[in-house]
Every structure is written in structure tokens, then in C-alpha cells.
Amino acid sequence: MAYHEPVLLEPCLDYLNIKPDGVFVDVTFGGGGHSKMILKRLGEEGQLLGFDQDPDAEKNAPDDKRFKFVKSNFQYLKNFLRLNGIAQVDGILADLGVSSHQLDQAERGFSYRFEADLDMRMNYNDGKTAADVLNEYSAEALQKVFSQYGEIRNSKTLAEAVVASRHSRKIERIGDFLSLLDPLVRGQRLRYLSQVFQALRIEVNDEMKVLEAFLQQALEVLAPQGRLVVMSYHSLEDRIVKNFLKTGNIEGTVVKDFYGNINRPFKVITKKPIIPSEKEIKENPRARSAKLRVGERR
Fold first, then answer.
1. pLDDT (tens digit, 9 = 90+) per residue, 43-78?
2. Does the N terminus or the C terminus of the chain have fewer Cβ atoms within 10 A?
3. CATH assignment of 9-100+207-297, given 3.90.470.20, 1.10.760.10, 3.90.226.10, 3.40.50.150?
4. How confident is the model at residue 1 (pLDDT cuts 50, 70, 90)?
5. Residues near 154 by Cβ (< 8 Å), separated by ≥ 6?
6. What is the CATH class of 123-204?
């Protein structure tokens, strides 16, 4: 089962600051590329938990007594750590977005390259599909999705076209949707389609709210000097991570105590995001938009 090459692998491992006997979490296990390399740096007493809500990911779990696979969305990080008797961890890695495996599985409906049902659920056993969003959301709600998550310039026109089209026929297949999209494309076609499909995927999987919930829990479960390593592929995700590491909240609001001291729960390790080299981008196009940010719990 082909999964993507781990992006920025060495920087991720180095910034995690892996202690041989520490407890670490990979909240986006996927193909296990990052996890397998973390295990190589752990000693006999070390522990690693890998979270993934995609049922396909469990097949990649290594047979290693130091590793535990958690079939769950990482917004439930704290609950599952508690269930496993873990109060604090020494490092958390999150590689956000969609995996190449998910994009390459036609039946998952993530990619405009295939003809399939418009699904896009990371956990294909639960929740609303992309077709549900397109057929049930109001024009105003659709415009917000396309504008906020896809940065689509003609989002109002697109939203209105979706609503008009579904009156005569439900939009259920990728081909149906592409027929609607093609006359509306602005700029480079493949970029436009990528942005529209990305916007739908983020909405279907509630990715921004999940990220916010995860970050707050990461702050609660990280031990002092524990590292939070987050790789994002979307400007909105990156802004949320940047704000959280800087201020401890997603808005980036500076909070002071009674004496005027600024609340800074993290020491920001990466003043600017780490980005892949031209060589890595050439070898692994998925790395193109990656931004890595790291914070250390004070």
C-alpha cells in the first residue's frame, strides 16, 4: 500500500528532540513513515502512540511492543492518552492534510483525477460526504467554504452555480462536479480544481476545528520541555499554528496576568517556518507547500 514519502523527515525527527526513554505521539500516522523513524531513535523503555482515523492506516502499524496504534481522530488526543494511563508526553508530531494514499485511492473521492463518488471523508465509515455538502448547504454556506478554505476568487458565482445545478440533478459524482466547474475556472485549471477540492475536504473533515481542539490538548498533555512539531500545508492552518505557539490561543491574542506578565506557554523554536529544499520538492511534489513550526512547552 503506497503512502507518501514523509515530508521534512530529518527536521521533524531532530526537532522532536527524542529521548530514548520518552513517550511520543505521532497524531497523523498514515503510512507510518515518521513513526518508524521515531522508533529507531527510541530505546527499549520508550513509547510511541500513533493516531489515525483512516481505517486503512492500521495496516501499516509496526509490530513493535513500544508502539500502540490508536484508531481515532487526533482531536481526542487527551482522552486516549488517559485511557492508556499516560498523563504527559515528551513530544507530539502532526503532519496535517491528506496523504498521497488517500488521494490515489479513486474510490475515496479526494481527487479530481478519478471518476468516483464525491466522498472525501478521512474516516470513510462516519460523517457527511462532499456530496452532502454540495447538495445540502445554502449558497451562503458554500461561498464561505470555497472562499475561506479554498481562497476561490469567484466563490459566490461557484456557490450559486452549485445551488442552481442541484435543483435539476443531485451532484454525486466527481464527473458531475467537474462538468459544473469547468465553465467557472479562473486562472490555471488544475490549481483551481485543487483549491475547490481542498476546500470541500477541509469542510467534510472539519479540519480547522479539529486542529484547534488538538492544539489545546497538546498544550495540556506536553511535559515541560516537551516539543510540539506541526507541519501544515494550508495558509489558514499555518496561521493557527503560528498564533498558538506564540500566544497559547488560535487568535494570536496576547494574554497577560494580573501583574502584566505575558502568558507564553511555549518557547518558539522556529522563528520562521522550516520549508523543504528545492531538491526535496522536486523529488516529492507534495512537500511544495509544507511549513514546519516547532514549540517547546515551558
1. 999 999 999 999 899 999 999 999 999 999 999 999
2. N
3. 3.40.50.150
4. very low
5. 184, 186
6. mainly alpha
